[in-house]
């Protein structure tokens, strides 16, 4: 049995436990940060080794408790899981770097919660059991409540209450769906369900459809699809920057689950359930894309603008995954890390600029119009981030969108091209408007009534700029090495569209010690 | 028993949804609790409830499913109960904190007031 599969869950779990022991003030931030980085380094090694295996097309199942996969809980590392793990890891490194410049001292338990969040994320990507997926969702969400709320007060408490109530309700729906699913299919292992969905008797079909539809609804609400996206902009915009940047991956967990479930259960061999929900997902994705782009255009604060960009990227991915051909899934998988890094970088840039403007002009911290003291470095960073997230050449966003548009099937060409290109235009306009108001406004050109404050030179802490540069560096590297990465996503998409190997490998993994 | 169980789940869900849609944070928390009770019963019934049979293996009883009740839903319910319980606690703390910070237990942290008062209040907050 391949023990590497469980390490991405175990390492942050141990790191979190250790962080709890050294939280007392007498240890100081240096020790806490050392532990956090040691855990992160070990995680990086484990994920790198695992990715090296999964990128060869290998699927390894790991039986927790040594029960056969259809009875017990199994972890499964395939190409998609490896890809998501690497994305999470790279994002988490940049977020931790940013948080270590000061936020981790203001928010109690930051390091422990951060590591728990990684446990939840990695677990959600690795698990092969649908109830276990629920548990890792909860681990991830509970850590996210802590990260969002610690160190906050007043308005953030109100936003936090909305966020928590929404997510708890969604989790309740998840449980209802799981109960119905177990009642109709008699298993919670994803591979086993995939097998049984295909052999479902017609009498059970309606109940199974209701349960699976409810399940998709839950995933879509986590990924902020149209009617369920309302919680996202405010809570992400109010979250501390390092946390908001990490949260960008959380919407991708919902997308990952949709992709996993639809590719495994509703594939071409699934009989009556084949292609279930894909039309609905496509149209909801298109509508979300339009609303998200309009929201980006209307945003008056930069963090809200970036939060809407998260909605836009999730909607683009929904369209890519709902179309369901190898080309669109591959383009979507290439777009996923890229849009994650770009949006996270923009959250960090928004925070950099907000703080510097606050120092320059305390009265108008939430308005775009306050004057920024020095603008060369943040201006350049914003330019790169904006070009990346809007999908302009030469960065990877353009390549991903071009690949997606060229792979759209004939029947949907007009709608998808129109909406994707139109939304890109709106996003570019929103970003340009923000950039102009933030960087090109000369002090005192139109509001002579208000005496201009003395610009206070408040240089950003170097590590914060370094974290932002790191995220933008990922984006640039993704563009430079586009060919090998796209070959990789092609391989992952091919593996997803042929779930027989997954089913066979998971069901075929025999217990090591236990004799049935 | 089917009728009793099914109607209990239905009634609890109905109460939960009604309370969840109300505007006071205390009502919302109660609604979430009722919903989680309904969910627990639903998961429990997913294993086809049987009367008077054990979920764990016993000596002297044949090891076929006909002589036992399905143990898996019971384990699932346990997990669900623990998570729902913890989340209720978190939400209560959050609601209390929001009430003391914002001086209102409305879910939007301010009372829906006539426009004039509302403007005055938001001016005071800023």
Describe it for me?
The complex is a heterodimer of chains A (516) and B (126). Chain A has 20 helices and two strands. Chain A is mostly helical. In chain A, helix 5 (110-126) packs antiparallel against helix 6 (130-149) and helix 12 runs parallel beside helix 17. Chain A is globular, with a radius of gyration of 23 Å. In chain A, 57% of the residues are buried. Residues 365-370 and 445-457 of chain A have low confidence and may be disordered. By secondary structure, chain B is mostly helical. Chain B is built from four helices and no strands. The longest helix of chain B is centred in the C-terminal third of the chain and has 32 residues, at 71-102. In chain B, 24% of the residues are buried. The mean pLDDT of chain B is 83. Chains A and B meet through helix 6 and helix 7 of A and helix 2 and helix 3 of B.
Question: Nutshell version of this structure?
Answer:
The complex is a heterodimer of chains A (516) and B (126). With 516 residues, chain A is mainly α.
User: What is the gyration radius of chain A calculated from CA atoms?
Assistant: 23 Å
Output the radius of gyration of chain B.
22 Å
Counting DSSP E segments of at least 2 residues, the number of strands of chain B comes to 0
> Count of helices of chain A?
20
The total domain count of chain B is 1
Report low-confidence residues of chain B grouped into runs of 5 or more: none
Beta-strand residue fraction of chain B: under 5%
Q: How much helicity do the residues of chain A have?
A: over 70%
Q: Main beta sheet of chain A, described?
A: 2 strands, antiparallel
Q: Strands of the biggest beta sheet of chain A: in what spatial order?
A: 1-2
- Assembly type: heterodimer
Task: Name the overall outline of chain B.
Answer: elongated
């Amino acid at each position: 049995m391949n023990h590497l599969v469980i390490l991405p869950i175990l390492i942050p779990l141990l790191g979190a436990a250790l962080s709890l022991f050294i939280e007392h003030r007498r240890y100081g931030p240096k020790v806490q940060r050392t532990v956090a980085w040691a855990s992160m380094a070990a995680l990086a090694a484990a994920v790198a080794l695992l990715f090296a295996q999964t990128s060869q097309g290998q699927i390894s199942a790991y039986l927790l408790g040594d029960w056969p996969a259809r009875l017990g809980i199994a972890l499964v590392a395939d190409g998609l899981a490896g890809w998501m793990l690497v994305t999470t890891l790279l994002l988490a490194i940049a977020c931790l770097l940013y948080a270590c410049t000061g936020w981790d001292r203001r928010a109690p338990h930051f390091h422990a919660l951060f590591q728990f969040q990684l446990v939840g994320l990695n677990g959600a990507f690795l698990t092969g059991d649908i109830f276990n997926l629920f548990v890792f969702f909860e681990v991830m969400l509970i850590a996210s409540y802590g990260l969002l709320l610690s160190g906050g007060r007043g308005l953030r408490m109100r936003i936090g209450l909305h966020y928590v109530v929404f997510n708890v309700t969604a989790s309740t729906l998840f449980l209802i769906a799981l109960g119905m699913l177990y009642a109709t299919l008699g298993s919670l292992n994803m591979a086993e369900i995939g097998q049984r969905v295909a052999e479902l008797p017609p009498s059970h079909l309606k109940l199974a459809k209701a349960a699976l539809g409810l399940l998709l609804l839950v995933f879509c609400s986590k990924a902020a699809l149209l009617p369920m996206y309302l919680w996202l902009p405010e809570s992400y915009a109010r979250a501390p920057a390092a946390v908001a940047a990490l949260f960008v991956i959380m919407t991708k967990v919902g997308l990952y689950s949709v992709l996993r479930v639809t590719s495994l259960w509703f594939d071409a061999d699934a009989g009556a359930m084949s292609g279930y929900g894909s039309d609905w997902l496509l149209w909801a994705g298109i509508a979300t894309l339009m609303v998200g782009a309009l929201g980006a255009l209307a945003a008056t604060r930069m963090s809200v603008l970036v939060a809407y960009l998260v909605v836009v990227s999730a909607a683009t991915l929904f369209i890519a995954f709902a179309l369901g051909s190898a080309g669109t899934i591959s383009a979507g998988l290439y777009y996923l890390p890229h849009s994650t890094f770009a949006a996270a970088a923009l959250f960090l840039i928004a925070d950099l600029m907000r703080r510097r403007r606050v120092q320059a002009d305390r009265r108008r911290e939430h308005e775009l119009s306050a004057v920024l003291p020095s603008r060369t470095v943040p201006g350049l960073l914003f330019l790169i981030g904006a070009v990346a997230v809007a999908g302009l050449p030469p960065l990877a966003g353009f390549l991903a969108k071009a690949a997606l548009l060229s792979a759209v099937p004939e029947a949907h060409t007009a709608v998808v091209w129109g909406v994707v290109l139109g939304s890109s235009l709106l996003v570019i306009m929103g970003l340009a408007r923000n950039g102009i108001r933030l960087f090109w406004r000369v002090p005192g050109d139109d509001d002579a009534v208000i005496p201009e404050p003395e610009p206070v030179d408040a240089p950003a802490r170097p590590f914060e700029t370094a974290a932002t540069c790191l995220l933008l560096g990922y984006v640039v590297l993704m563009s430079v090495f586009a060919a090998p990465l796209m070959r990789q996503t092609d391989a992952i998409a091919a593996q997803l569209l042929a779930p027989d190997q997954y089913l066979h490998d998971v069901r075929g993994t025999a217990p090591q010690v236990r004799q049935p | 028993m089917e009728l009793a169980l099914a109607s209990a789940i239905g009634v609890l869900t109905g109460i939960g949804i009604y309370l969840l849609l109300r505007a006071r944070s205390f009502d919302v928390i109660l609604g979430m609790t009722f919903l989680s009770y309904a969910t627990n019963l639903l998961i429990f019934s997913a294993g086809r409830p049987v009367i008077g049979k054990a979920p764990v293996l016993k000596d002297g009883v044949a090891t076929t499913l006909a002589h036992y009740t399905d143990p898996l839903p019971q384990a699932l319910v346990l997990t669900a109960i623990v998570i729902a319980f913890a989340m209720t606690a978190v939400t209560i703390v959050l609601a209390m904190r929001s009430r003391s910070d914002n001086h209102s237990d409305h879910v939007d942290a301010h009372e829906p007031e006539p426009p004039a008062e509302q403007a005055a209040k938001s001016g005071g907050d800023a």
